[in-house]
Amino acid sequence: MKIFLDSADIDEIKEAYSYGIIDGITTNPSLIKKAVDTRITKGEKIDMKKYITEILKVAKGTPVSLEVTETTYDRMIHQGRKLYKTFNPIAKNVVIKIPINTAFTDSDDRQMDGIRTIATLSKEKIPINCTLIFTPEQALLAAKAGAKYVSPFAGRIDDEIRDLNRIKYEKHDYFPLEGLEKGKVLEDNGVVSGIDLIEQCIDIIDMYELETEVLGASIRNARQTRECALAGADIATLPLNVIQDLLKHHKTYEGMQKFTKDIVIEYMHLMNGFKKENTKKNTKRNKFKKK
Fold first, then answer.
1. Which domains does the chain have, with CATH numbers?
2. What CA–CA distance (Å, rounded) separates 163 from 3?
3. Taking the CB of the first residue and of the last residue of the chain, which one, N or C, has fewer CB atoms within 10 A?
């Protein structure tokens, strides 16, 4: 499973890429605003084009999703083309992020604008990450329209199920993949958890051999990341703190404490490429200097 960093903070991006495990970046207008606002409050002057350019360069050719801010077909097409034309030449790694549906209500006449935009830009060979996926059928239509990635939002579905059933929770609380029971298994239109949503998207795309990758989004903790991988997701996009949490376990800390306590000097020198004889000479020389 590939790991994308879900961030627009350039310091976080540099930090994450220094680990050698990051395969791409997902951004959105909210993340960019948060990152830029933080720098402005510190007195920095931000040139947005230069800022995005720096993100693309740090990503070193790995995919970077840039999201449109418009909500109608014509405006999304115009903005998507402009974003791609402006930024893709920099590192050849831009992916345009389009919502599956930009309507605000059931009566809104923009219901099909997102899918039409995906189809049009995909035909122009512009790679698309279809975002705000909350049902497997949305993922199916996005894949049929040519999206390179579909992004089911696991954490937000977990939130929705808990909110509908008035269950208190903290944002990073674990939500079981098999769902919650309250007299019956709780669900949202046949989806019992965020990981279940990801699994159903994978099943449909694999069944029909569609050339679209499933990108698990809104992943809240390390265990959910593991379940995303076990479900067969092609990618998980994670905030920096969740990536760092993937390495944590108290027994690992305990083991490190024991290993370092048991290490003998001779072994240390051997591992560092020193000869035992040289160590003795150095020790005598040091004693002589002290006298």
1. 2-248 (3.20.20.70), 251-290 (no CATH)
2. 29
3. C
Q: What is the rounded distance in angstroms from the CA atom of residue 133 to the CA atom of residue 157? A: 10
Q: Are 218 and 239 in contact (CB under 8 A)?
A: no
Q: Mean pLDDT per 10-residue run, the chain (291 residues)?
A: 98 98 97 94 94 97 98 98 98 98 98 98 98 98 98 98 96 96 95 98 98 98 98 98 98 90 69 58 46 42
- Tell me the whole-structure pTM to 2 decimals: 0.89
Strand partners, 141: none
Residues 6+ apart with CB under 8 A from 287: none
Instruction: Please count the residues of the chain.
Output: 291
**HEC letters along the chain:** CEEEEECCCHHHHHHHHCCCCCCEEECCHHHHHHHHHHHHHCCCCCCHHHHHHHHHHHCCCCCEEEECCCCCHHHHHHHHHHHHHHHHHHHCCEEEEEECCCCCCCCCCCCCHHHHHHHHHHHCCCCEEEEEECCHHHHHHHHHCCCCEEEEEHHHHHHHHHHHCCCCCCCCCCCCCCCCECCCECCECCECCHHHHHHHHHHHHHHCCCCCEEEEECCCCHHHHHHHHHHCCCEEEECHHHHHHCCCCHHHHHHHHHHHHHCCHHHHHHHCCCCHHHHHHHHHHHHHHHC
What confidence score (pLDDT) does residue 272 get? 75
User: Which residue among 42, 92, 97, 291 is the active-site one?
Assistant: 97
Active site residue 14: no
pLDDT at 21: 98
